[in-house]
């Protein structure tokens, strides 16, 4: 079993930055691909970014160039640095972990965090 706890969400003005953190406990963190998804009101949960156990990452087109995902295996933590935030980035952001090589779809996610709210005001 893996437990994921997100932190770092909040309210920010458009153009601002936030850094989300996700602390993992339980099974061996470094073996898992990690990712971030988000869900806006009335929308399906969507892929934002993922990072493999070896550090290779992928981003959704909507956040490419603005968001950066990273991981610290020594701290069992994955981060999402979000810059140049837009109102359309407002959502609940979920940390995800899985044994699949990539986590670009919800169908391969094995574990979810509880979510953290990000609100970007215009």
Q: How many distinct beta strands? A: 11
What's the end-to-end separation, in Å? 40 Å
User: Looking at the structure, what is the overall shape?
Assistant: globular
Helix content: under 10%
Unreliably modeled segments: none
Structural class: mainly beta
Strand content: over 45%
Rg (C-alpha, Å): 13 Å
What pattern of helices and strands is seen along the backbone?
Answer: EEEEEEEEEEE
Average pLDDT reading: 95
> Helix tally?
0
State the major sheet.
Answer: 7 strands, mixed
Task: Describe the structure using short key phrases.
mainly beta; globular; 0% helix; single chain; 122 residues; 11 strands; seven-stranded mixed β-sheet
How would you explain this protein's 3D organization?
With 122 residues, the protein is mainly β. It has no helices and eleven strands. The strands form two sheets. Strands 2, 4, 5, 6, 9, 10 and 11 form a seven-stranded mixed sheet that branches. The protein starts with a strand and ends with a strand.
Please give the structural blueprint.
Elements: E1 2-7, E2 10-13, E3 18-26, E4 33-39, E5 46-51, E6 57-59, E7 67-72, E8 77-82, E9 91-98, E10 111-112, E11 116-121
Parallel strand pairs: 2-11
Antiparallel strand pairs: 1-3, 3-8, 4-5, 4-9, 5-6, 7-8, 9-10, 9-11
């Amino acid at each position: 079993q893996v437990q994921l706890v997100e932190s770092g969400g909040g309210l920010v003005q458009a153009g601002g930055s936030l850094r989300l953190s996700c602390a993992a406990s339980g099974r061996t963190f470094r073996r898992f691909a990690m990712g971030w998804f988000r869900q806006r009101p009335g929308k399906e949960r969507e892929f934002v970014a993922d990072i493999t156990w070896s550090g290779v990452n992928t981003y959704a087109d909507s956040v490419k160039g603005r968001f950066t995902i990273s991981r610290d295996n020594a701290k069992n933590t994955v981060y999402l640095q979000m810059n140049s935030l837009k109102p359309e980035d407002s959502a609940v952001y979920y940390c995800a972990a899985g044994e699949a090589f990539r986590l670009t779809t919800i169908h391969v996610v094995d574990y979810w965090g509880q979510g953290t709210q990000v609100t970007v005001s215009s």
